[in-house]
Amino acid sequence: MELEFLQKEGTLSALNSLYFNSSCIIIC
């Protein structure tokens, strides 16, 4: 269960950083 949670968290943070980077490119 903990592993699953960590996996989801990792995926979420990866998606968030990707989204933030693309947003910065668009905004900046």
How are the SSEs placed, and which strands pair?
Blueprint: H1 2-27
Describe the model.
This protein has 28 residues and is an all-alpha fold. The protein is built from one helix and no strands. It is rod-shaped.
Query: What is the helix fraction of residues, given as a range?
Result: over 70%
Tell me the fraction of residues in β-strands, as a range. Answer: under 5%
The total of beta strands comes to: 0
Number of helices, counting only DSSP H or I runs of 4 residues or more = 1
pLDDT below 50 for ≥5 consecutive residues: which ranges? Answer: none
Give the SSE order as H and E letters: H
User: How many angstroms separate the termini?
Assistant: 40 Å
Gyration radius, in Å: 12 Å
Structural class: mainly alpha
